[in-house]
Here is the input.
Amino acid sequence: MRTPHFDSARLRQALGQFATGITVIATRDEHEHFIGLTVNSFNSVSLEPPLILWSLSKRSRYLATFRQCSHYSISVLAAHQQDISQRFSTRHADRFQQVEHHVTELGLPLINDACAHFECRNRHQYDEGDHVIFIGLVEHCSAQGGEPLLYFNSGYARLLSAT
Ligand SMILES: Cc1cc2nc3c(=O)[nH]c(=O)nc-3n(C[C@H](O)[C@H](O)[C@H](O)COP(=O)(O)O)c2cc1C
Here is the structure.
């Protein structure tokens, strides 16, 4: 493999010019505890069948749980939920404590007042570099709307005009 003409700081900076939304992706571990993390690698893959993707760092303490779980949930955060994004990306014994959420029929946690919700079957995983790419088959989804929380150039951002 050829050595790239850039370091990881430059790659990070270039990738940071791609603005994204922010999600919390969650599931239940083997002790029936809810676990989850802030994720901005979420994206759409296919409408028929309905597929989404996201990638998880191989250094994540949740890697084994997400590899094994049958389903996971996705909450697309709203602009007023920046504190939730911070909470789900930093160390907390129980990230769901003090965060308003509800539990679905599949037993998955969804964050209240989010812009959209998805419940996905854990369909495929692909090992690539320092991340694992997860492909989820969407079994349930809903769009509540509202102003989304954005991530751009390593910082939180908001829409200039919300539709
Ligand atoms: C805006 C934002 C987006 C993130 N996106 C991802 C992601 O797509 N995949 C990932 O593995 N980690 C992502 N992270 C980092 C994880 O949220 C964070 O490393 C993890 O929650 C730390 O958990 P742990 O160190 O306790 O395992 C993101 C963090 C932030 C703030």
